[in-house]
Amino acid sequence: MKQTFWKSVLFLIFLTVPLLIAAQGTVTGKVTEGSSGLPLPGVNVIVKGTATGAITDIDGDFELLVPSFPSTLVFSSLGYATSEVKLTEPTVLSVTMEESATGLDEVVVTGLASSVKRQNLANAVSTVSAQELVGTTSQSTVDGALYGKIPGVNITATSGAPGGGFALRLRGISSINGNNQPLIIVDGVYYNNVEIPSGLRFASGANRGNEENSSNRLADLDPNDIQNIEVLKGSSAAAIYGQRGNAGVVLITTKRGKSGKTKISFSQDLGTNKIAKRLGVRPWTAESVESAFGPVDGPGERALFEATMAANGELYDFEDIIYGNTGFITETRLSATGGNDKTKFYVGGSYRDEEGIIKNTGFDRFSLRTNIDHRISNVFDFTSSTSYTRSNSSRSFTGNENEGGLSYGYTLAYTRPWINLFPDENGNYPDNPNAAGNSIFVRDHALNDDTNDRLVQGMTLNTNLLRTDTDRVKIVTSGGLDYLANQTYVYVPETHQAQVRPGPGGFIAVGKNNFTQLNTQIIGVWNKEAMNGALDLTTQLGVAYLYQKSNLVNSRGSLLAAGQTSVDQSVNQVIDQFRSEEKDFGYFGQIEGNYKDQIIATLGYRMDKSSRNGDPNEFHGFPKASLAINMANFDFWSIESISQLKLRAAYGETGSPASFGSTFTSLGASIIGIDIGQSVVGSKGDPFVKPETASELEFGFDLGIFDNKLSFEATYYDKKVKDLILTRALPSSSGFTQETTNLGDLKNTGVELALRAFVFDNENFKWNTSIQWYKNRSEITRLAVPAFAQPGAGFGLGLGTFYIQEGQSATQLVGNLNLDGTGTKPTKVGDVEPDFQMGFSNNFTIYKQFDVSFLFNWKKGGNNLNLTTFLSDLGLVTPDLETEEGKARLLMPANAVRFVEPAGYFRLREASIHYALTRNTVNSVFGNAVEGVRFGVSGKNLFTISDYSGYDPEVSVNGGTGLSTGIEVGSYPSSRQFFFSLNVNF
């Protein structure tokens, strides 16, 4: 019986083993690119429902042990449509992959050396493709092109001048005194987005460098070079970037080459630039002139009014004279892309020339880019990204000043429209009897220019140390250089009215500014498949180093020799120099576990030290953790109509060191031997200052219906910032003017919702639409000192300012009011933060030839402090002063509540219609040399509905840093643009 038993066992084993062997098998194959037929390396090949996979080699070949049959292999690669192949047995495959516009949306680069499928993300990471960025209409700058396209991102124009000037805020205010602009990384290079003061304030009388109408230097990056942008909005996503990620991170990937024959693309845009909104002229009559200026001056002003009407038949419309120029815009682009199985390249060049709505203002940019990808062997491959930009701006004179006679907004607020300011037959400009300057003279002869030369170089070397069926190990070594040479030039002739009487006799300022930024990182990445391929583990460890150096030299002179335009020809000369050197160093590690694309968890930690901290050798830690659960990927899921239901949660911390020099106390001048009451007058630093630290908890879910033709994303976040570095004024008795140190905490909470639908998707008609809705609420949760007006963030409690107060919004506007008759006290009069913001976009394709697109923005609530109206009220030229509302406003005290206005709006941001010639038409007209021709018309800022009385409810007079939004003083008006575009592909 024993022998019979063992014989039976052996017989069963003999029958079972072949079945077990047949249950698994090796699949080999080659993957090629659809349009060229060339091998496609780096393609991910995954057994669906598992973490078992392989990557195609340099020849596009792969080999994969499939654990069981039947199975499905999933092929995915950045920029290509994912394809699936069902298998019933081991075989040899030949797979072709086609380019896909949505392929970019499938793989998201969120870390320093790793990527993740969007379906597995545990954070709300927003992606903007090249088509979304510049596919509708021509764009001057990257930040301007992002308007209304990302939930949770608030963008404010700090100037309407060509070449931009924008403030980006990701999920509210991250710092009161420091930088609120996100960290920008372009192809792995830390990109300097600095605003550079020119010294203009010393001529205009403005108080601060951020009031000089400068552009931020993201303007040097051509938006047409960009392939996609990924925005890590909160600390839970940006924690891996440590103490540079407090305000979020913007990852920009530029266009790269593709295997196949060389393709050449040519584009030409022609456009116009006109003021978007006119305020108009007060409807004067002889009687209203005399009444407005009273019994003393009224009769004389009436006589001037009547003389002008008799001579010209109309008054001078100085708004039209200064802001009424129709600027011409032209942009030419040429690029080539191609490559083979080892080397791919992208080469592009562009030139943009944009005239402003003020004569003699404009912006031009010449840009060259070369991106190369080369696979040396199966072990080594590298990428190189090189760009050179030469840009020039002429921004003239707008914004805040103190009777310098230069800013158009100031001058026009007092200039009466019956005064002739045009030059006589000898070229002599008359004095303006109502203001400190003649705005026509300033437009024609004064200069406020800058020139920028910029080189950005990025390099990455990948070393594949190990590649087996279950383990892949590589070393990623990368580095970047960003070098910017900036020159500024401000010139006010000695014949300018304010310079002659009683002024300094002309003014000139020349700036020579250099910025060098280096970053490098070395990262080891280990990908491990466990549990027979069901679990995929990705571990990375690395170090990062950042070095920044700047040298700003500003030479100024006054009392110029007649006709001279250089500093050395002035009598009174001053030279300012600011030098800084910063070093950051950090360690980081992260492990990600992916179980069958069902449960994805990540743990990470970064330690950073910075020379800007009180203790430059102290490391500060920034942890992160996240969890995503793809419910629709579980075996029990049976609702076929719901293709995705992902629950996600994430936590992370980021930091922001103090600004350079905050650890030191600056000393003012004193006279030795003379008792002046105090020996030290300056800014009090804090040698023990700690970095600001943000911690964020984020929850959300993603829902996809009907194979993701309808998708919905919802996110709630709670972001807390501790150890706020604040600057507050000190009484002179302290011996200091102000101090900068850790004084408080704040928090931001918000909701982000995004809905996207492919409503129709057939051969002759396609329609996709998206809606984005978001809101944010900020609050100062702790303040270690009494409430105070933030220096440099307003115009004092008399006219209105941002006010730092525990328990109140960080963006509240406060002024001194006497509401109860007991005396004036700081009182909230408004808040620049809106109730919510929304974007609504639609794209239609009709018969594969017509493309129609439009983007609406809606901002509900929020206030601006309109001090331009305050000035024009003082000058009695505000257009509405004949109305009951205007008359009532003149009777009100000139305080903050009088000039706070609702700043909500509804705007058609972009719209276009393009037509693509059919293939037959192209061949018959141009032959086989041309592959496609597309042309069309488009526009930006086509109309705006708003109760705001100023030029634009999106306004900031204080530049892009700190609390910079919601205050208007004579800003450069925004414009409406129209374009004709032609694209030809060879």
UniProtKB/TrEMBL annotation:
The keyword Signal applies. This is SusC/RagA family TonB-linked outer membrane protein. Belongs to the TonB-dependent receptor family. Its main location: membrane. Residues 1-22 form the signal peptide. It is found in: Cell outer membrane. It holds the Pfam family Plug. NCBIfam families: OMP_RagA_SusC, SusC_RagA_signa. Keywords: Cell outer membrane, Membrane, Signal, Transmembrane, Transmembrane beta strand, Transport. Residues 119-249 form the TonB-dependent receptor plug domain. It comes from the Bacteria. PROSITE patterns: TONB_DEPENDENT_REC_3. Coiled coil: none annotated. InterPro entries: Beta-barrel_TonB_sf, CarboxyPept-like_regulatory, Plug_dom, Plug_dom_sf, TonB-dep_OMP_SusC/RagA, TonB-dep_OMP_SusC/RagA_CS, TonB-dep_rcpt-like. GO terms for cellular component: cell outer membrane. SUPFAM superfamilies: Carboxypeptidase regulatory domain-like, Porins. It is a multi-pass membrane protein.
